[in-house]
Amino acid sequence: xxxxxxxxxxxxxxxxxxxxxxxxxxxxxxxxxxxxxxxxxxxxxxxxxxxxxxxxxxxxxxxxxxxxxxxxxxxxxxxxxxxxxxxxxxxxxxxxxxxxxxxxxxxxxxxxxxxxxxxxxxxxxxxxxxxxxxxxxxxxxxxxxxxxxxxxxxxxxxxxxxxxxxxxxxxxxxxxxxxxxxxxxxxxxxxx
Length: 192
Prior knowledge:
single chain
């Protein structure tokens, strides 16, 4: 009996976190679909209609998701958001891998979440290869403006990310982190 089949398509490779070619025609078509929905979202003045567009773009959207324009992402279908999300203006999510955001999360303006990695090896970069690692943000997290969350990071429930921070490592639940790279400034005990 043989094991699981290795990923065959570039999209399967991307979602499996192995090296893939982002210039693949199917992935280009997926990004083009997302670009059309993003234009519709960012041009729409009505909050209700914007939420409807998000439901078409994202993998899943919870109740009361409020994302201010201008918002940008690669694919959209790899983004899952919980209830009561608030995302301020000019946020970016490069969702080559899943981005999962919990309930009651707040993002300041210009927050960026990256899942894409580019190889350190120059020859591999010249070949157009990249990979991706998922990002998760727990419940009741506050991410300050212009923070950058790097590939593979998990942020625990009730954490606070200081404005302008570059988060390169997992953040424990209840922690306050800031800086470049972000470091734990203090642990906050959860409320009872």
